[in-house]
Amino acid sequence: MKAVAAALAALAFAPAAASAAAKPIVVRGADGSRVEVTRAPLSLTVRDADGRAVLRSAAPDRGFPRRLAPTRDPEPLGLEREPDRVVYAPLTFEVGSEQRVQWTGSFFPGNLLFSKRRGTTHAARRVLSVDRTADGVRLVASTTDPSRRLDIRVRRSRGGVRVTARPSRTRGVITTAASFAIRGAEAFHGFGGRHQGVDQRGHKLYGWVEQENTGGRATLSQTALLPAVIEEGTGRTLDELGLPELTEKVLPGGYEHYMVPNGPNAAYYVQNHFVSSAGYGLRAERSELTRWRMGDDRRDRWQVAVSAPTLDFTVVTGGVRRATRRLTAPTGRHRLPPAWAQGATLWRAIQVGGAGETRESALAKIEDDLRQIDARRAPVRAYAFEAWNLLGPDLTRDVIARLHQRGIKAILYVRAYAAYDELNSQPAGDLEHIRDQGLSVRTASGKPAFYEMTGSPALTLDFTNPATQRWWKRRLARLLGYGADGFMQDFGEHVQETDRFHDGSTGVTMHNRYPVLYHRLTARLEPQLERKFGRQIYWFTRSGFTGSAAAEMSNFPGDETADWSSGTGLRSLAPDMLNRAAGGAFGYSTDMGGYLDLFAGPPTEELWTRWLEWAALTPHFRLHNSQRTGTRMPWSFGDRGYARWLAMARLHARAVPLIRRLWREGRRTGLPPTRPMWLAFPGDRRLARESQQWMLGPDVLVAPVVREGAVSRRVRLPRGCWRLQSGPAKAVRGPRTVTVPAPLGTLPYFVRCGARPW
């Protein structure tokens, strides 16, 4: 029998005899492209409108069916101590069992702890039948599993071609996948708010919305989770390991990029799509857990795999600009916010830890802020305060009225769950009301699905329930009734796979979809609320997934740490902003100064100043920092600190008209206001991997200082003539690399010769 099985495996991918039936099956795409399906062995080739092959299926590995040893992918704490077990072929599926475990408490509820799989991988072999449809073809293919065939549909779709594959019998199928060849120096751009550079080649990513992944040396050394794992893996504690050995042997991505608890590529804002430098873009259309292996274990191929019995993806063609436009047109791009929302904003956060915040302490801080604003005539356009629940309705209305008297808009705070916590960001009784009225997600037995959030019981709102939608409308109306002009719409990453929703969905498909529903609901309510209260409102979000950008105006990138790190500190910002901007999420709004200071400590004057500089030529200029030690406002570092904030606020104000014009154009073209160098200068490989500088439109090159102690900045200039605006206005011709002076308080940026951006 073994000999027969070996013979069948050898024949599985043998080419068919030359005949008319061996001619490729062709489907034309909406973008002028075409997909050619080779019948035997089955493979896919995508050609652009000029007939150039831009994407081809990977050659199949030998030995299907392949029974793989059990594997954990991802591994606990995002570590990579076990070998990857993956096989490649044009279309595959795995039959077996998968166990996924999520965090149910601490700071990380909803995040993946690990996924353990055991099974046998099968591959499609050859096309058995072809049925033409109005928009493409339906195919049936044999597979290396005698009991299953693969039903494949290839059809024209908006922007390109869509491919769907599903085994004829889905019981026991735990993943489906497609594998493709990598062409030469091909680069992969996008995937949402990832921090590890702007080219994801060589990386393994997970399409799973996650929260509170933090980096930086202080975080690593003081997080209780990590030392035990390091000791287990090496036999020595963290203190006994030197940084080089720690980087090489324990932490994927190295100390500089690793984040607790999900590793270097975790993201609050996930976009399951990318643009390739080879002339195409690809978007996965499923919401279950997705794995992307972008040449990490095999440099010559990449794979997309989804933990579901159906694989579904769309391919668009064209250079990086055209592919970006076609890829984001169906999923949407950020809406333009009101102009005031892009002006200088101050955020008075609730101080947590220690004695915590009280009604009296919160009000005293707000009063002092108002005195400082008046005394300095600070050009503040908006002021946010989280303590509206602590202050109560009357004081909240009074504070907002006083802001309005000064021409300052007011922003409050909401979130997608209810709990008892030190943020005091909801009225008393919310948790009990949501529980008793059935407004939360539920367990399989129909009970409220409680989990733990930083020591408190918590419930996630079920936005598929019409009663919850009505409750949410009342919550937003309450804030607007106080006089608020907008709000932060926080969280959205908590859904457990065991959760059950009012519409029958489970957390398996809803974990990633939840931010889409959350933000779409508010966008749907927005016109009604604006009519009721007679003013335009602004709101911004944290979590996100493919398709949520159409509902949103702006995002903040999660709780950044008050440090310089590329994990979650200052150096993490540019890759995050540029990756999600290319996916249609234009409105990046960083917490200037860094919010999480539990391990890093409060921002120093140097870090705080460099953060102001970084944000000056981005869509928003919002100061928000120091969760536990108290917000550092523009006057917190004295007159010198205030002068630096004022200079950057004024620069930002001059740039806002340009940003808004670029934003309007981007809604049509897909080109974001803040552009990665690979998108601004297609084909220039020298610039393509630059992740700490960007273009603001076609004429302004921004290169902020992101290294502690630096007083100069190395900048890679594109072809053409450029003038430095932060120093002697001397014309410099590119392409070349220059080093420019950048003393503290100076933002290095260049303008194209002859251009007048503002």
Number of helices: 16
Query: Overall 3D geometry?
Result: globular
Provide the β-strand percentage band: 25-35%
Radius of gyration: 26 Å
Instruction: Report, as a whole number of angstroms, the end-to-end distance.
Output: 77 Å
Structural class: alpha+beta
Give the integer mean of the pLDDT values: 92
Low-confidence stretches: 1-12, 14-20
Main β sheet profile = 14 strands, antiparallel
> What's the count of strands?
33
Percent helix range = 25-40%
Q: How would you sum up this structure, described in words?
A:
- The protein has 758 residues and is of the alpha+beta class.
- 25% of the residues lie in helices and 27% in strands.
- The chain contains 16 helices and 33 strands.
- Strands 5, 6, 7, 8, 9, 10, 11, 12, 13, 14, 15, 16, 17 and 18 form a 14-stranded antiparallel sheet that branches. Strands 26-25-21-20-19-27 form a 6-stranded parallel sheet.
- Helix 13 packs parallel to helix 14.
- Residues 1-12 and 14-20 have low confidence and may be disordered.
Q: What's the short story on this structure?
A:
With 758 residues, the chain is an alpha+beta fold.
Notable characteristics:
758 residues, alpha+beta, 14-stranded antiparallel β-sheet, 6-stranded parallel β-sheet, 27% strand, disordered N terminus
Helix-strand layout with pairing:
Blueprint (H helix, E strand, L loop, with lengths): L1 H10 L13 E4 L5 E5 L4 E5 L5 E4 L9 E7 L18 E12 L9 E21 L3 E8 L5 E9 L2 E8 L5 E9 L6 E5 L10 E5 L9 H6 L2 H10 L8 H7 L4 H4 L12 E7 L3 E5 L5 E5 L6 E6 L4 E7 L2 H9 L15 E5 L10 H18 L5 E4 L2 H18 L3 E7 L1 E3 L10 H7 L14 E3 L2 E5 L5 H16 L4 E5 L16 H27 L4 E4 L31 H9 L23 H12 L4 E3 L14 H32 L4 E2 L1 H4 L4 H4 L5 E3 L3 E3 L9 E13 L6 E11 L7 E4 L6
Parallel strand pairs: 19-20, 19-27, 20-21, 21-25, 25-26
Antiparallel strand pairs: 1-2, 2-3, 3-4, 5-7, 6-7, 6-11, 7-8, 8-9, 9-10, 10-18, 11-17, 12-14, 13-16, 14-15, 15-18, 16-17, 22-24, 23-24, 28-29, 29-30, 30-33, 31-32, 31-33
